[in-house]
Amino acid sequence: MSALIRxxxxxxxxxxxxxxxxxxxxxxxxxxxxxxxxxxxxKYAKTEDKHIYTIDSPSLQYVVNLGxxxxxxxxxxxxxxxxxxxxxxxxxSDGRERSGKIEERIRKP
Length: 109
Hints:
- With 109 residues, this protein is α+β, with helices and mostly antiparallel strands.
- The chain has one domain.
- Helix content is 19%, strand content 50%.
- The chain has one helix and six strands; from the N terminus they run αββββββ.
- A six-stranded antiparallel barrel has the order 1-2-3-6-5-4.
- It is extended, with a radius of gyration of 18 Å.
């Protein structure tokens, strides 16, 4: 009986994720720039690279921190993205969805 309950829970979770993804409003933009910032980690002289991307949309430019993840989309290529609160999700050129924290919003004149 518990295997049946687990299957039902998995089916419900999959349906909920699908419904949440359907509510997203995807926008078309352009990947403008990528910079790498180095951060010190811990008490030793170890650093970690954080990848920061600038995405251009018709009304705003978004500066997004993807952490240690790199996009495969080349600079100046179109990119699809959606904004949810302080998170920006984008579809990489390999079809994978990537998520990062919005660090800055720049309104266009």
